[in-house]
Amino acid sequence: MSVFNNLGLMEPGVYPMTLGQLVETFGFSGKRKYLLSELERFIRSAEETGMGIIRLIINGSFVTDKEEPGDIDLYFIIDANSLLTSSDQQKFLNLMGHDLVKQQFSLDSYCHLDVVKPSNNFVEFFQYIGPKTAAIKQLHPDDLKGIVELVR
Fold first, then answer.
1. CA-CA distance, 114 to 79, in Å (whole number)?
2. Which helix (H) or strand (E) segment is 81 a member of?
3. How far are the Cα atoms of 38, 92, 117, 127 from residue 34, in angstroms, in the given order?
4. Cα–Cα distance for residue pair 55/64, rounded to 1 Å
5. Burial, 148: exposed, middle or buried (Cβ in 10 Å; 0-12, 13-18, 19+)?
6. pLDDT tens digit string along 69-117?
């Protein structure tokens, strides 16, 4: 059963999925399987440093019916205390860097520490279709779509 509506989008909302469910649902092409393996590698790297990821949201064309998305858009919130106890603080900080994560893992990542209130509500923001998808699907950029929250 497809999670997509007739426009190739998930209905608006935040859908909790395990990593296994994410692979089963969205791993329907070679490129997608590669991106999912990169996401898994990122998560393993974060765990190895002791990074406490509190919440991880997946968005972008990856959560649409696009056959070959270029990357996975990712937003995650980190437990600030885990930075203090990290086994490798430099690697931990590198995993918070947008450009390094993009280069090393093909993830378009945005993160913040749980003690800092972000200037944007990324969970709400990620649900907007946005101009690129709106143009492709002939919708309004402010229309909403579903996103995925990775759960353990």
1. 5
2. helix 80-84
3. 6, 23, 33, 24
4. 21
5. buried
6. 999 999 999 998 888 888 888 888 888 888 999 999 999 999 888 888 7
